[in-house]
Amino acid sequence: MKSEFKASITRAVNDANLTGALGKFSEAYKVNRTKAYEGIDFEALRSRVAEAKSSAACHLDEVAEIFKKNAEALGAKVYRTKDPEQVKQYILKVAQDNGVKTVVKSKSMATEEIHLNPYLIKNGISVAETDLGEWIIQLAGQTPSHMVMPAIHMTKEEVAELFSKEVEERVSTDIPRLVKVARNELRPKFLAADMGISGGNIAVAETGSIVLVTNEGNARLVTTLPKIHIALIGVEKLVEKFETVVPILDALPRSATAQLLTSYVSIITGPTPNDDGSLKDMHIILMDNRRTEMAQDPKFKQALQCIRCGSCLNVCPIFRLVGGHVFGGIYTGGIGTILTAWFDEMKKSEDIQGLCIQCGNCTQVCPGKLDIPEMIMEIRRRLVLEKGQSLVQKAIFGVVNNRKLFHGMLRAASVAGKPFTSGKFIRHLPLFLSDLTDGRSLPAIAAEPFRDTFLKIEQPKLQEKAAFYAGCLIDFAYPEMGVALVKLLNKAGIEVTFPQEQTCCGAPALYNGAYDVAAQNAVDNIKVLLQEDVRYVVSACPTCTVALVHEFGKTLDTLGQTEWLSKAKQLSEKTVDFSTLVKHLVDEGRLSFKEGEELGKITYHDSCHLKRTLNVFEQPRELLQKAGYELAEMFECDMCCGMGGSYSMKLPEISGPILQNKLKNIKETGAPVVAMDCPGCVLQIRGGLDQDGAEVRVKHTAELLAERLKD
Amino acid sequence: MYEQFKTRAVGVGAEVYRFEKKRDALDFILPFLGKEGVADAPGCYAVWADCPFLEGMDNGELKNVPGLSFEVSRSRAAQSRIGISQMEWAVADTGSLVQDQSAAEQRLVSSLTGIHIALVPSGNVLADKSQLFARINPQTSRYIAFITGPSRTADIERVLTIGVHGPERLIIIFVDELGGENI
Prior knowledge:
The structure holds 2 protein chains of 2 kinds.
Chain A: H1 3-13, H2 16-36, H3 42-58, H4 60-73, E1 77-81, H5 84-97, E2 102-105, H6 109-113, H7 116-122, E3 126-129, H8 132-140, H9 156-167, H10 175-192, E4 195-198, E5 202-204, E6 209-214, H11 218-224, E7 228-234, E8 238-239, H12 245-257, E9 264-269, E10 281-287, H13 291-296, H14 311-314, H15 319-322, H16 333-344, H17 361-365, H18 372-387, H19 391-400, H20 403-416, H21 450-456, E11 464-469, H22 471-476, H23 479-491, E12 494-497, H24 507-510, H25 515-531, E13 536-539, H26 542-558, H27 565-574, E14 575-577, H28 578-587, E15 600-604, H29 608-613, H30 618-626, E16 629-631, H31 647-650, H32 652-668, E17 673-676, H33 679-692, E18 697-700, H34 701-707
Parallel strand pairs in A: 1-10, 2-3, 2-4, 4-7, 5-8, 7-10, 11-12, 11-13, 13-14, 15-16, 15-17, 17-18
Antiparallel strand pairs in A: 5-6, 6-9
Helix pairs in contact in A: 2-12, 3-12, 9-10, 16-18, 21-23, 23-34, 25-26, 25-27, 26-27, 28-30, 32-33
Chain B: H1 2-11, E1 15-19, H2 22-35, E2 45-48, H3 59-63, E3 68-69, H4 74-78, E4 80-86, E5 89-91, E6 96-100, H5 104-111, E7 115-121, E8 125-126, H6 129-133, E9 143-147, E10 152-153, E11 161-162, E12 169-175
Parallel strand pairs in B: 1-12, 2-3, 2-4, 4-7, 5-8, 7-12
Antiparallel strand pairs in B: 5-6, 6-9, 10-11
């Protein structure tokens, strides 16, 4: 990562105003959004939105042509272009042909995307943004930091400072006062403007309508007062049918600002009369700027389902810490990373794509059903293809791809008996090591890896068998978790096998874009794990489980190694995470826990992959309660702990504060023990609490349950 | 449905009243204009856009209200404290009013003024957007406007503030006598 990028992150996370405002907003947003969606079947709603948008994206050119024909029949002038430069020239020409001196604008990300304002100003036309947030950042000479709330990074004091300069008198920091200043200052500009420029939230092909969704009322003035109205609309806003406006209007305000509906929605279909009786000169520009190319790319077509609500930013644990400006472009956050990679260039996303920790929060709330983490992974993969791995990564993955060498080195580390902060090469191995101990202690490598311990465990000979896939962390750092799992399954009448040739699940390589390495890991594991005749393949690491269940097949498919797909599917069907399997065994009456003892409070941390990819969150809670614990939920129990595999090593300045937040939420429950199902989260949280000095035990659910087995 | 509408609309900061007769509504509106300082002076005017409510009204009484005008121009609206118009539909689940505002004066009175008084036929309360969309047609209505509460922003420190560019008060007056679909 470039050093100026790192520096911008450090600046952002240390900006108390920014992290305070964003943090508070993001916490409140979650609650308010849930309330706004009360009584609505969100899954059904977002399916409607996604299907309609996807259908339009499938034949954009045709839909755009229908729009053009219908809008022109009503008297609007429709201009279609792929090129942002032509958009600017077109607008300038309309302005010059009509002697336009002043322009008022309502909010439009498309105009920001092509940097329209500086272009018009350079050509002698005065431009006023009228959305309050946009006006603030225009006065400040900045770019929006959030697509719905452009000035969320600024304090009222900073705004008062800007306004004071603009109106040439001292303005107080009272927010209603500041809003009044904006109203008074902008009103004459509205009344005098020769041209209004708006964006468009929806463009309906079958009717030639554009839909504008606003709260302030500025878009109504922009489209009413000046005699010329130009709407600049990205082609991804096109839908085929008028009826699609309904689900988008149901979703957009709820997802964007947790409102049932914004104060104003305008559906404009062709030019309307001006207040002097003349007819509006209405222009609609449908801009492509690589959107059609995107629609034709099978991995990125889904990006056109975006309705620009910004909810992916609002729930992102990274965005709430760093804000929008570290993204460096016009579009920010996860979706911004993807749009920047396309609208600017792939290279520009090189640093910012690394900000995504792959927690999946955004996938849960996206009303367009975009899988942003997946698209960011694809960007990573393409960047690696284009540029190759860094030398260090190459070396690391070279080792990971050779199981004997990899495991040999891990054993060597254990023999050295030192924690991982020492040693030269090994500390860069995925998942384990780092020169970072700030805020988190790192585990020592176990004196004996699970693979050796396993050989000494005496198991009863049983008919039913399950293969245990340990994953690197349980195998080499937390073998006791594996021992607990064997104990539990034996008790339920299942004999555990441990295929010794199993190796890394490939997640570290995959999340760094090294798909070829991940594919090799996948093939090696598929061979080994399918060798034995077992009923289940069980893992106590959600990241590994996700690799076995989903990623092996997807990775091999992406690389075209289709000969392995049916085997990958076989493995996927057999694989189950620890809590789901144990819950199943308890339900079948094959396993029960000691009764009659109250163990006191426990709090549970949901790991990203378990909660959001595997959709498992009730099972461990029920098991822990059955075992005698009283559940005390923490605030934001399913928010990422900041581990994210090698993420915590690459971006400790972000991982650290996320961890601190998690620790605070854990401690506030007053529970003396926190449970989780992921050894990676254990590493992060146990290390954090250790440095923090708090008396909270951090345990894998398996360990806690094994303690409570009936004799 | 009316009650649901009222709850939602009040929830977003609108004020909601209901009268049986047009006369009753007028007896509310005219003193309200006086109370709000409507007078024959720039900044203090009131504008009333053409609407079914006015049909058959005794214009003598209304014409004599100081500052109140039925000729809606941009400059008059910009200098008005209060704008009055009739909205066609009320949508209960979001507390929204909807009208074909293709005529510019309908937008001027409801966007440039500080207070917007919206008259609505009591019988035109609809349950939700799907009912509404069965009744609106963009082919015949070029500017379909939804108004939900007063103008608002939260662009400075996420603090909700009322009345940025549009009206800072929305007063909704249902009038039974105006009829509507459901009566």
